[in-house]
Amino acid sequence: MGKIASKIWSKGLLGGFGVPEMHEELRPLAFWSREDLISAYQRFLNTAEPTMDRHAFSDAFQCFHDTAQSDAAFRSLHPKKGKVDGNTVFAGAALTSNQCYISRVSLIFSMFDLDNNGVLNKAEFCIGVRSILTGLHTWFAGAVMPADVELEVALDDLFKRIDFKKSGSLTLGEFLVFAYRNRELQEMINNLPSEDMRVFENMVKFQRVPIYVTGDGHTHHHSHQASSQPGSQPGSRPGSSNSVHTPRPLVEPHGPGRGPRSQRCSMVVPVPPDTEKPERPRVRRRTTTACPHLHPEPADDKGTWCGSVAYVKLTGSRKRASSLRPNRVWTPPSDISKAHAWLLWRFFRHLSGGKATADAEAVQSFFRDPISVRKEFILIAGDAKIQEPWAFTEASPDEASGGLEFAAEVDSLSHQFQRVFTDPHLRQRLEDMGSGPITVRCFLCNSLPSLTPAHIESCLAWCRGFRSLEVLQQLGELEAAELRDDDLALLFEMLDVDASGDLTLSELVDIGQLPEEKAREIFEKCRRQEGAAALTINDLRNYVRSLNLALGSDVKGLLESFAHTGHEKQPER
């Protein structure tokens, strides 16, 4: 990917302009916000078609002033037989959207998770990269499209590099670690301007509409009634063995009238010419885990279950993926120790000033002073002697001895990290990042390049636990007014060990490590119903909103009093 990414803008940059030149007709599709682009892509998915004609294109984006502007943009995308590939169009729109670098990457990963199982297999990965490069080549006059042979070799090598576990699929964590560490990819995407500096490292779950493709080549939505098809029996599904139609021959290598470039969007699976045609109609069904109630019964439907049209074209079949529903009961990760994670977490919280992200320029300025770096690690090692976070997670015969072991490990790691974080090479890597926000994941990827994606995910899991303890401590103070909904959701994720959907007093004391008196105080403040035995997340949200309203009224009253005093007392002349 490095060679391909470095060559994609070579013609344009050598031509004399630093920013790639976009086609004027496609400018209405660029610089979209993340929220608007997600809504537009969902409208495209609701059509259950891999391609868009002129009307579907206009309905999906809804950003054109008139029909002439919409038609001009559609022609600039070089439609074939009056249609354009939807994945290619939205890949270009995501790259040119008004988002920071890593937010674009996470959104593209979500778009090409065609079966909604949370990972990208090799077919989905290849579809995504090809759509990105084709989109850039279509949108920009100076973009250089690599040759097919070069691209095939690069994609195979790139997939193996990102797939660190050699599992045959890419997780979002592996994808983000590669994106943070690959300078060529950053240069390729960062040449496209953006203003929104919010960082989104989470995945977007899209709803993909299931469709049925019958042997006659017609596409039927699940909501259509079987009676709308001529010759079908009452109660039969379109494409089932009860409906009467003629099977479509599947002998063309790329589908009817299709070439290799449109192969990934074909609805037809290629079959060798000497293969016998099935006696019954062939049924293709596209569905996702987002619509479990539409999965076919094994006794009635024997068609091929697939996650997407493009996936079936490249792989021919798909095994049903296991459920990836997260377990609400949090368990400590074993890939990295608590002392490692706590030391890095506290150091990052100092860099960010207690916020979720740190400013890159402030971080670079701090690392230019090695003495300040050493002092901060010494202070963190001193704090480890006072209290150990999440002490219940590590069993020890004596609680006091367990705390001493944690403090000793933190002190030993502190000396090691002082040497690591004062290395000139680390300062240079941080300087190369430029400006913008830095998350915990970004900091770990760039400051400790030896960490594997599994280590980084384990460290982030520990950091979420440490953050939940901070949120719990803030609930009893006025700082609770600054808490967000995701902070409260994280608190429930970590403390609700019985997965009951609420927090009891014992969970606040035993899991949250609060003194019983303070836990009762928080419990009484947050619960809405008198005599309730547990707190729900809505109780916490209403409590935080009430604090915001109270602070707002206090500030308003204070300003009014100042204004009133200023009118009464005039300066003497």
Automatic annotation (TrEMBL):
Pfam families: EF-hand_8 (PF13833). Residues 100-135, 150-185 form the EF-hand domain. InterPro entries: EF-hand-dom_pair (IPR011992), EF_Hand_1_Ca_BS (IPR018247), EF_hand_dom (IPR002048). One of its GO terms (molecular function) is calcium ion binding. Coiled coil: none annotated. Residues 225-243 have a biased composition (Low complexity). This is Kcnh7 protein. It comes from Symbiodinium natans. The gene is Kcnh7.
